[in-house]
Amino acid sequence: MSQEVRPAAPFGVWERTVAARYLRTKRKNGGVALISTISFVGVMLAVAVLIIVMSVMNGFRAELLGRILGFNGHAYVAGGVLTAPDRELRLRHIQAVPGVIQAAPLVEGQVLVQGPAGAQGAIVRGMAPADLKATKIIAGNIKQGSIKDYGAGEYGGDVILIGDRMAAAMGVGPGDQLSLISPSGGATAFGAAPTRKAYTVGGVFSVGMSEYDQSFIYMPLEQAQLFFGRDLAVDVIEIKLADPDQIAALKPAIAQAAGADSIVTDWRDKNAQFWTALQVERNTMRLILMLIVAIAAMNIISGLVMLVKNKSRDIAVLRTLGAGQGAILRIFFMSGAAVGALGALAGLALGLLFCTYIKEIQHFVEWVTGADVFNANIYFLSSIPAKIDWSEVAGVTFWSLLMSFVATLPPAWRASRIDPVEALRYE
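Predicted structure:
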């Protein structure tokens, strides 16, 4: 009794064996090997660049968001609460809102700073000692001196904190003095008179953003009120939340606690144009780089078309031995897809490796070239940030594999349609 012969399973051992053999082209098919190598390198670099750029963009957003919102408030209350007789009571009500971790009265004003090495403009931020200690981005980043004398003395004393870039520009350190000149001091019979006073630098902070380290001075709240002629008034109440992204849900409760005559704004209003521009740039860059990945994957078509042309006789022989059109299609599909898949995986590894050691790579490039490749005065950060978003990495990998698979289908389909009689006619 004859045994029934079953057809080979799709993507079976013999199909994979033939596909792997076609990938190991001989010397006479060197042109195919060269194009396959170029396709592999193109997909690898495109995937790596996409991962690196998106990680750097994510790093920029995370670093800027963390430092900007760590240095500044998440919400601001102005209006009637600032002059109301029950301001302290309203302030406690704001602090009692669930999710609010800090509510600090502030006085801010512009001054001219004069030091041994020169003069420059700056912003003085008047803040109570307890609120300053709760601001971790300042209290936790004191590089020189300390904050122990901040707020000590009559009317808050004369000890101030400055950024490290300002300290370097002014040529001062802890214990040295700076002269501050305010154009709007106390009121006189002839109007507001400029105020000039010498202050002692108690500590030098560094938050890692040149804009803040260069331009801001922290002064005790009472001293700032006296220096700027505010009497007992404040300019704004700065609020910080446990989660800045919850501001939309907490804003009504904050407004209710502050009173109907108060105005509540948040960090989204203050930085709306900046964050919108950053998001648009991020989306545009992602689209452009995804197109580059697709273009790199299209190189696979060239190599596979040449491979099909060179293997026409082999295809005809396989067809006469019983291989179906589907088997031929799968063989050449696996040959082309393997190039794209290996390129995508190599690009994935290269991109992740680059992002992991991006600071070391930056330092090496700067050491070799002797140039500052990442100017903190321009980018506001001291080093290139990179934050790997694994969902984006998975999306990039999926997209590159999809493009590689799509690119192999036309030449693989063409191979499956070759007529064995026509292919062998002139052999």
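Summary: Confidence is low (pLDDT under 50) at residues 1-5.
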